[in-house]
Amino acid sequence: MDRKELHRLVEELPEEKLPRMGDFFRYLFDEDELELNDETKKEVDKARERIKSGEHVTLDELLKENQDV
């Protein structure tokens, strides 16, 4: 995935989903500033390990999965 693909996905995103995607992007940029409790830190560590081991979904898959949420 590159910037061009991300831009395309954002352009195709329905207007009503933009606020959620904006929150997601803000989270990515502010991650270092978040104050996480121990349980959340463990969950983040587990998620990172899953990503390293290849257990992940693409942004397209995530968007399709959460279409009706």
Q: Low-confidence spans: pLDDT under 50, at least 5 residues?
A: none
Give the total of beta strands: 0
N-to-C SSE series?
Answer: HHHH
What amount of the residues lies in strands? Answer: under 5%
Structure description:
0% of the residues are buried. The chain is mostly helical and 69 residues long. Helices cover 65% and strands 0% of the residues.
Concise synopsis of the structure shown:
The protein has 69 residues and is mostly helical.
SSE diagram, text form:
Layout: H1 3-12, H2 18-30, H3 38-52, H4 59-65
Quick tags:
single chain, about 70 residues, mainly alpha, 4 helices, about 65% helix, about 0% strand, globular
